[in-house]
Design a protein that fits this description.
The chain is an all-alpha fold. α3 runs antiparallel to α4 and α4 packs parallel to α5. The protein starts with a helix and ends with a helix.
Length: 150
């Protein structure tokens, strides 16, 4: 169990993810001028915590195991897949949810009574900028973590 708690690569990735989620909360506050605590647990938005996590993981593995290691190659491939998914499939699903919610609103206006379906979650994926900022945040977080704790 001690090994788990002393695994710097793991904790760097987890803390980078948490840091990105906290930044998301503050960015939303500065834009909307209100706290929305749900932002701490939701997907989508600036910066991408998924990208921060996998970038911190890959950077930490690269520092610890070396850039020529198979483990580093695996984490880079994982990071690419996660970031591609965030900007592709999950982003498209969010856009579909947005359009479906619009259709539901129009339908609701027509019917006025009857079932009121709950809106679909629209903030699912990320723009390329959100992923890039998340990845940069993860890399910087890992570099600082490994520079401070050696």
């Amino acid at each position: 169990m001690t090994d788990l708690f002393s695994n710097q690569v793991l904790w760097t990735a987890i803390l980078a993810s948490m840091f990105a989620q906290i930044i998301k909360l503050f960015i939303y506050y500065f834009i909307e001028r209100r706290w929305e605590w749900e932002r701490l647990a939701e997907t989508g938005g600036m910066p991408s915590s998924h990208s921060a996590t996998v970038a911190a993981l890959a950077t930490g593995v690269g520092i610890k195991e070396g850039l020529s290691s198979s483990l580093f190659a695996m984490t880079i491939v994982l990071a690419i897949i996660v970031m591609y998914d965030a900007t592709g499939i999950r982003r498209a699903a969010g856009l579909h949810a947005e359009r479906l919610n619009s259709l539901i609103d129009e339908f609701r206006k027509l019917v006025e009574q009857g079932p009121q379906p709950e809106p679909l979650k629209e903030l699912l994926g990320h723009t390329y900028l959100e992923v890039a900022v998340g990845a940069a945040l993860g890399i910087i977080f890992a570099l600082v973590s490994f520079a401070l704790i050696r």
